[in-house]
Amino acid sequence: MNPETNDRDTGSNSLEITQRTQIKRLPQRGNYDRPLIHQILDEGLICQVGFVVEGQPFVIPTAYGRVDDRLYLHGSPASRMLRTLKQGVEMCVTVTLLDGLVLARSAFHHSMNYRSVVVFGRAEVVEDAAEKIAALKAFTEHVMPGRWSELRPATQQEIAGTLVLSLPLNEASAKVRTGPPKDDEADYELPIWAGELPLRLTPLAPVADPQLSVNVDVPSSVQQYSRSPLETAE
Length: 234
Prior knowledge:
The chain contains 6 helices and 11 strands. It is α+β, with helices and mostly antiparallel strands. It has a single domain, classed as Electron Transport, Fmn-binding Protein, Chain A (Pnp Oxidase, Chain A, Roll). Strand 4 and strand 5 form a beta hairpin.
C-alpha cells in the first residue's frame, strides 16, 4: 500500500514518518534525521533494490550514488531491473553497514552493531544531460572520492549508453544499534567473556593493472581511500 503522507517542511532535518518507514521492531533504534540517513548512504557501497515483476519479487544488489536528497541508480538500458523501475513501479532500497559483532554471555543475546537505511518510492528516468553527468560523477565519487578528476571525460556514446534513474529520498528511515550486549541480569556474574568486536572495511595495498604504462604513480584518490564515517558526515 502506498502510504498517505502530509505536507512537510523540505528544509527540515527530519523526514516525516510514514506507515512504511515507521520502525515497529525496537523503535528506539529508529532515526529519521536526514544527515544520518545521508551519512549511512554515503558510507555504504552496495544497496539492495527490491521490486516486483509479474507477481514475482526480486532483490538485486547494485551500486548507487547520492546527490542532495536524491539517490541514483545506473546501468545498461537492457537491464531488467532498470527497465522495470523506469516504469515507475514501487521499489524499496536498503543499505546496511556492519559495525561490529556483539558477543553476549548467552547465544540468545548475541547481536550485531549496525547502521541501516530503508528507502521507499518510485524512480524516474534522468533525461536532463547536466543531471545525468552529475549523477555519473556521483557514482564515481561515491566509490572512490577524488577519482572523477583523474579520469578522461566520459564520451557521448558512454553517456547515451547508460540508463540513469533517480529516486527521491522523501520516504526513508534509519535504524542503528550500538553498544555492548544486553544480557539477562542473572548472567552478568558468569565467568564468560562478553563485549564487542568492532569491524571495519580497510583497503589493502593497491594492485596495478598488468597493462599499466611505466612511470604512472598511484593517484591520491587510491592512496587516501577510506570509508570512514567521519569523512562522509555532513
